[in-house]
Each structure stands twice: as C-alpha cells, then as structure tokens.
Amino acid sequence: MPSVLKRATRSDKKIDRGPVVARSITEREKEVLRLVALGYKNKEIAKDLGVKVKTVETHRFNIMNKLAFRNISEMIRYAITKGIAPIEDE
C-alpha cells in the first residue's frame, strides 16, 4: 500500500460513520464510493455502470452530504477503513 494511503488510514482524525451507511447510502452510492476510492474518474465510473457522468456526479454529491464528508480524502479514507474499497498491499 502506498505510504500516503497508509498514513490516511491511520489518521488521528476518526471518521466513524459506520451505522450511518446502513441507513442512508444506497447500494448504487456504495458502488460509486468504492470506485471513487479505487481511483476511477467520473467518466470511467459512468461507463462501467452504464449511466451518465451527471448521474455519477449526483451520487458523489449525495454521498458527501449524507455522510458529512468535508472533502474527497475523507470519503476515500472512509471507504478504505470500512472495507468498501480494500487496497491491496504491493
């Protein structure tokens, strides 16, 4: 795992929104979250899921709002620490 990701997942800032996921983000949003955390761009995600780029942007916006993330790094760190987007060791 790259050192940046290791530092991000060990951050002192706790982001524990586990129970919130079950009640607030949809399966599709969870899928988009996983792909974003794995580094895919909106256009790639849209093609992979068979939707428009605007739909992916809407899902990302909804995820950020529902889980109260302030930035994309919080969203990615959350996905990794919760096992939504497992990162393999190199």
From TrEMBL:
One MF annotation (Gene Ontology) recorded for this entry: DNA binding
Domain (HTH luxR-type) ranges: 18-83
Keywords: DNA-binding, Transcription, Transcription regulation
Keyword Transcription regulation among record annotations: yes
UniProt xrefs under Pfam families: GerE (PF00196)
Database matches in InterPro entries: Sig_transdc_resp-reg_C-effctor, Tscrpt_reg_LuxR_C, WH-like_DNA-bd_sf
Any one Gene Ontology BP term: regulation of DNA-templated transcription
Origin: domain of life: Bacteria
Protein name (record): Response regulator transcription factor
Organism expressing this protein natively: Candidatus Manganitrophus noduliformans
